[in-house]
Design goal:
Radius of gyration: 18 Å
Order of helices and strands: HHHHHHHHHEE
Structural class: mainly alpha
Distance between the termini: 22 Å
Largest sheet: 2 strands, parallel
Amino acid sequence: MNRRELLQCAAILVSGVSASRLGFALNEEQWTYLATAPDYTDRKVDYLTPAQRRIIAAMAEVIIPETNTPGAIAAGVPRYIELMVADWFNEQEQAIFSAGIAVMESDVPAQYGAPFEQLGPQEQVAIMETLEEQASDSDWYRFGTVQREFLSEAPFICQMKELTIWGFFTSEVGMTQVLRYDPMPMHFDGDTPLGPDDSSRPMRFI
């Protein structure tokens, strides 16, 4: 399996729902892995400190905030991020992540007078936009790389965005309350009309 296939499997394990319900087109290797992998649902992990967990949760919620649908926190994304960093990141990726969270933990209070999670929405967005500007020359932002392999040298903000999106849209909350849930046998319909409040075409699960 490549890194993206592993991320997909890990997201299924963390969400606590079955792969068949999510309807992914998994390959044989992924099915075998999911059949033998340990259950993440009740697994405890102590990779981050409580203060770092609060920062990660707040950053994830900035990326996918609660609106008329649940946000990243409600979908369990912060826990997913910690598990992925602890269990799936290699040493280079962990080092980048640790350095990034250390900057958030020390520099933000020094500059703004309060931890990131205690700042207002505008300040939080401004901080994350600054991180994006600083990382803008990364290959992670290269046009047309949506289906690329996971980049080990991706900056911290890119790690956060990628894991937040993966964790959210492969969670039960993201799949059933944000994407259009239609529990019918999977098929492709490229001519499904969209209503005024629809954000996507329906996800038809197996």
